[in-house]
Hints:
Blueprint: H1 4-17, H2 22-32, H3 35-42, E1 49-56, E2 59-66, E3 71-76, E4 81-87, E5 89-97, E6 106-115, E7 119-122, E8 127-131, E9 138-144, E10 154-156, E11 163-165, H4 168-180
Antiparallel strand pairs: 1-2, 2-9, 3-8, 4-7, 4-9, 5-6, 5-8, 10-11
Helix pairs in contact: 1-2
Amino acid sequence: MFDLDQFIADCRAALAADRSHKLVREVVARAVSEPSAVLEHLGEPRRAVLQKLHHSPDLTILNVIWAPMMTLMPHNHNMWAVIGMYTGREDNIFWRRIPGDPGGRVEAAGARALCAGDAEPLGRDIIHSVTNPIPRLTGALHVYGGDFFAVERSEWDPESLLAQPYDTKRTMRRFEDANTSLTSIPR
Length: 187
């Protein structure tokens, strides 16, 4: 049975024992090993959102709901992360900076499809883009080793792949814009 307060306490204890993502990943993997329990506790996703479940200077836990076919441009976090899927699918393209490129452009370097029950760590320097490739809402627990909302980071233009400062407001608009398309997609 998934209990949010216990999950947060377990993540905090794991972080206190090891500042890396390793023990937190074990906590997330245990939680999403029973995706239906997480779904039952958090509720059926109804709209695209970044929902804060826990927020402190050293740990942020989000319930991330991706709209059908929603994509976020390449971005970094400048901290480790663990993604735990509890419903749907999240496709990640991993990117690397092109050495010597004056605009800080990136190129694709790999990919990973995450499904319900998967718990994937992302290193501090990972650059990734995210797509929900299925025609329904997708839900995941995202756990970050720091204050997700305070750290400076970058994003890359989806067309030119040039680096620019991360724009939180643009990202939040992307989630809201994705919600407008939900009315036309069968559930």
